[in-house]
Amino acid sequence: MLFSVKVNLNKNRALIVGYISAIIGALLFGSVSTVAKPIVYSINPLWLSCLVYLISGAAITPVVKRGKYSIRTKDYLLLIITSICGAAIAPAMFFLGLKLTSAINGSLLSNGEVIFSILLALTIFGEKLNRIGFIAMVLVLGGVIIVTTNLRFDSSLLNINAGNLFIVGATIFWGLDNNICRILTHRIDITKIIQLKSFIGGTILLCLTISAGISLSITLMEVPFILLLGVVGFAFSLYFFLQGLRMIGTTITLLILSLSSVFGMFLAALFLHERITTFQIIAVVIMLCGIYLIYRNDINDKSKIVRTGRS
Predict the structure, then answer these.
(1) What does residue 124 show for φ and ψ, rounded to 5 degrees?
(2) CA dihedral over 284, 286, 290, 296, signed as positive or negative
(3) In this structure, how many other beta carbons lie within 10 angstroms of the beta carbon of residue 81?
């Protein structure tokens, strides 16, 4: 009986840590749009993506756990695939798309990462949602739509243009990247994954940038924004995001990641002086209700499993 209670408490503690990690990751990732706004149009997308991920790899290196890593051959293959998808193709496509489409379209379409990640988790990687989980998913994604559109849809969103296609393509690659990373977190230390993924993706982008003859110059005013993007927006947001993936699964972590649009909204209001609307406040309430519903449902499910296993 005491053993069962202890296991139950440990499970619940792991879930709480997983949820907190996912929320912190969403907060840090939500800062990306605000930080990138001043420089996204002045730096080539390939070069910007390259700098961000090389800085991300360098930033995480001091905290990588020392020791011997027995990485299997197929894990190296997965690392290369996730690096190409999530640290090379996706960011380059996203920044390029952001230059070719409106801000509201880019914000809305970027949430495709959540949708594609969940669809891949459900259809390919075998994750499951019960009825309450589906209701919670609808609440969270509904809130995301309200936050990003304010229920005012730009008519150009319905047109097929290069910018929209690039951003949708980026979210597909990030969706695949998220699910592969979830597999790797159970085999390789998270900090090592981020380090290798960032350096591999950054190196690929650097080779492409040089091959394309793109200017490698940046101004002193752009340096702080690039450093913030690499260290805070990508390195540490990815660290907490992967912690969430390992502890609470792809589907739930991705739903919580939807909160990044909420955090981004408040950061934009604070630093870019953008106005928060009534619709956006309503959306925040809806999303928080969905997250709470997921949390309570997940806690109950894990508790049932523990009690059943020890009865």
Answers:
(1) -105, -40
(2) positive
(3) 13
Using CA atoms, how far apart are residues 208 and 50, in angstroms rounded to an integer? 9
Give the CA dihedral 286, 36, 238, 20, nearest 10 degrees. Answer: -40
Evaluate whether 30 touches 259 at the Cβ level (below 8 Å). yes
The tokens describing 254, both together, are: 């991705």
What percent of the chain stands above pLDDT 70?
A: 78
Mean pLDDT of 105-115: 69
Structure tokens at 170: 């980026």
Residue corresponding to tokens 């997921």: 294
| Residue 137 CA: distances (Å) to CA of 130, 132, 174, 270 | 11, 9, 19, 28
> Beta-carbon neighbour count of residue 72 at 10 Å?
10
* Cβ(97)–Cβ(159) below 8 Å: no
From 51, 32, 34, select the one nearest 217 (Cα to Cα).
51
Q: Quick one: which of 14, 240, 173, 140 has its CA closest to 129?
A: 140
pTM above the 0.70 mark? yes
Q: In the chain, what are the domain boundaries? A: 25-302
* Whole-number Cα distances in Å, 47 to 79, 118, 182, 198, 215: 22, 30, 28, 14, 8
CB atoms within 10 A of CB 279: 14
Contact 40, 99 (CB under 8 A): yes
Label residue 178 exposed, middle or buried (CB < 10 Å: 0-12, 13-18, 19+). buried
pLDDT at 7: 47
Could you give the dihedral angle defined by the CA atoms of residues 36, 38, 42 and 44, in that order, rounded to the nearest 10 degrees?
0
DSSP tag of 275: P
Are 39 and 48 in contact, with CB atoms under 8 Å apart?
yes
